[in-house]
Design goal:
This protein is α/β, with parallel strands linked by helices and 429 residues long. The chain folds into two domains: 6-61 and 308-416, Aspartate Aminotransferase, domain 1, CATH 3.90.1150.10; 75-305, 3-Layer(aba) Sandwich (Aspartate Aminotransferase, domain 2), CATH 3.40.640.10. The protein contains 16 helices and 14 strands. A seven-stranded mixed sheet has the order 4-10-9-8-7-5-6, with helices on both faces. The longest helix has 23 residues, at 387-409.
Amino acid sequence: MFSRYLKSEEFLKRAERTIPLGTQTFSKSRIQFPYGVSPYYAARAKGSRLWDVDGNEFIDFNNALAAITLGYADHDVDKAVRAQLADGTIFTLPHPIEVEAAEVIVELVPSADMVRFGKNGSDATAGAVRLARAFTRRDRVAVCGYHGWQDWYIGSTARNLGVPEATRELTSTFRYNDIESLDALFRKHPGEFAAVILEPMNVVHPAAGFLEDVAELTRRHGSLLVFDEVVTGFRLAKGGAQELFGVKPDLTALGKGMANGYPLSAVTGRGDVMRLMEEIFFSFTMGGETLSLAAAVAAMRKLDGKSVPAALAATGKMIVDGTRQRIERERIGHFAEITGHPSWTFLLFRDLPDASSLEIKTLFMQECLARGILTLGTHNVSYAHSDADVARLMAVYDEVFPILRDAVDNRSMKQYLRCAPLQPLFKVR
């Protein structure tokens, strides 16, 4: 059977000869995109659209794993980058754009007194944890959510191969919206936790008082509270989840959409804690690379001036409302639900006796991709998404949800699937 992804599959075979897994990011690989029914390589993107190397056009609801907030190739961001490119990208001395970018973050983020830049979200979360350990003179960390690839966190997951047991033992997990699970860690290891780090929101909203209780409990035990706002920063509100929910952490990790796809992250927070950045080692040759900083200034100014978070929420609400209506109409609520903040929602599937959640998700992706919707089961809304894009998404769901229902109710999953089901990576949320 002819594949509409022939060039992608050829590139994948070529890439796997020199690149483990064929790409740099698990979530962009064949582990997350089912082989035979998925594109693997992009040629270009603009606004809400992405074109793969085979020339297929998609409305992208993944948006580079939520790194794109304004839309691909945003005019104002790219204009700022081109202007900076004329002066250079990296120098023997720091450039004033570092100061300007830091000042914008301090202006927008409620907890921000001082800022240090990195490149990936993992840089920022790891830097915040190292800083908390230095400040408190303690070693243990309590985590909730996904916080990147580095040893201190990934050792607490099923992907811990290569992480020393001594490192893994220092990180403990607690459950979101379950304050008792965090309290139990403090009781088990009194006076030992340097930091509590969590995504202030991911799949579900925080229960009433949960974030406030986390903050109070953390500080009562002499630990620092770190918000991982790599995704939620500049998305849920211009100042992130901490602004939306009114809870200020001691430190915050930022990344992804802050530079609209250019590689930049940041650690920010209380001045007395951040001053210790002068003593710990958190230093990058490319930390002051100017193109990403220019992109961040332009992106953050636009996010603020255009009230982008409110626009994302409005677009996302249309998606949430429309998806829920279709779940109810097609009677698939026993295995499907939509949840999350409107700007970052998750279409979740549940295991059933005759169909696993991964089989259902694979079929969902197979059928959406065939109809020009690029998705991993999330809706990472961008400012470029139009009402017409939402209408097209709903039209696709009108076609795909009945297929899911038939495959589940009539036990015909194997007849529908044209590929092997996805395999689990690891559960982080």
